[in-house]
C-alpha cells in the first residue's frame, strides 16, 4: 500500500525560503517568524520525505541533489495552490465559468443587447447558447438544461423565479396578397374563417398556446391546416400561402415582401414575457447575467405570476 504524505503548504513555503536564501536565519526573517519553527518544519518535511534536503554546517547551508529536485516541485505546488485560490475567487465572483441560455425564437430578439453587455463585462465566462423555442424554456429550466430562459406569464411552477421583461403583442401574419392585408388593423374575428398555420399548441407553453387561447376568447377555434416550428417556419408557410398566423411582434421583419403584418385590435392578444431561472440558484454568473437584462416594469415573481 502506498504511503500517504501529509506535508503542509506552510512547510513548502518555509523550504522554498531556505532554499533561496541558503540561510535559516535570513529565511526566518523573510517569513517574519523566529528561526526555531523554520528549522523544525524543515526537519519534519525531511522526515516525511525520507531524505535530507539540505547539507548543513556552521559555514554554509546547501541543497542536496534531492533538495534541488524538490525545490522545483515545491515551487510548482505552491504556485498551483495560489492559482487555485485565485481562480476559485474568480468563480465565486462570477468572473469565470459558464452559463447556459435558451436562445431560440423570441429569445433571439430579446437577449442580444443583454448578451453583448454581458460579454463586455465578463469576457472569460462561456456562454452556452441553446436554440430552444420559447415554448420549451420552462421545461428546460426545470430539467437543468439551461440556466436562463424566457416564459410567457403567468406560469404555475414554484421551482422557477421570473422577472417581467416586456409585453409583446400578437400580430396577424398574412400572405402579402391576402384580401385582409389591405386593412391597417384586424379583429381576431376577422380571421375566424381563415386557415391557420400554428406552432403546435400542445407542446410547451409558448405563443402557440397563447394564439389558441386568444382565438377561443374571440369566440372561435382556429382551423389549423399546418403545424410548424420554430416560428420562422410558421412564417415561411404563411409566405408560401398556406394560411395565416398569429405571431409575436418581434418577428415582423421576416419575409417582409411576402408576408403582411397587421396589428390585432383586442388588447388580450398579447403576452407578458419574463426572464426565468431556477429558484434558489445562487450562481454569481447567473446574477451577473440578470444584471445585464432590462428590468421591464415588474418585480421578481416566484412561481405563478
Chart the SSEs and their pairings.
Layout: H1 9-21, H2 24-31, H3 35-49, E1 54-56, E2 61-63, H4 65-92, E3 97-102, H5 107-110, H6 112-121, E4 125-130, H7 137-142, E5 149-153, E6 160-175, E7 195-198, H8 207-217, E8 223-227, H9 231-239, E9 245-248, E10 259-263, E11 270-278, H10 284-291, E12 300-302
Parallel strand pairs: 3-4, 7-8
Antiparallel strand pairs: 1-2, 5-11, 6-9, 6-10, 6-11, 6-12
Record keyword descriptors for this entry.
305 residues, alpha+beta, Arc Repressor Mutant, subunit A, D-Maltodextrin-Binding Protein, domain 2, six-stranded antiparallel β-sheet, two-stranded antiparallel sheet, 10 helices, 12 strands, 37% helix, disordered C terminus, transcription, transcription regulation, DNA-binding transcription factor activity, HTH lysR-type domain-containing protein, DNA binding
Number of domains: 3
- The ordered H/E elements are HHHEEHEHHEHEEEHEHEEEHE
Query: Which word captures the global form?
Result: rod-shaped
What integer value in Å does the Rg equal? 32 Å
Keywords: DNA-binding, Transcription, Transcription regulation
Family: Belongs to the LysR transcriptional regulatory family.
Protein name: HTH lysR-type domain-containing protein
GO molecular function: DNA binding; DNA-binding transcription factor activity
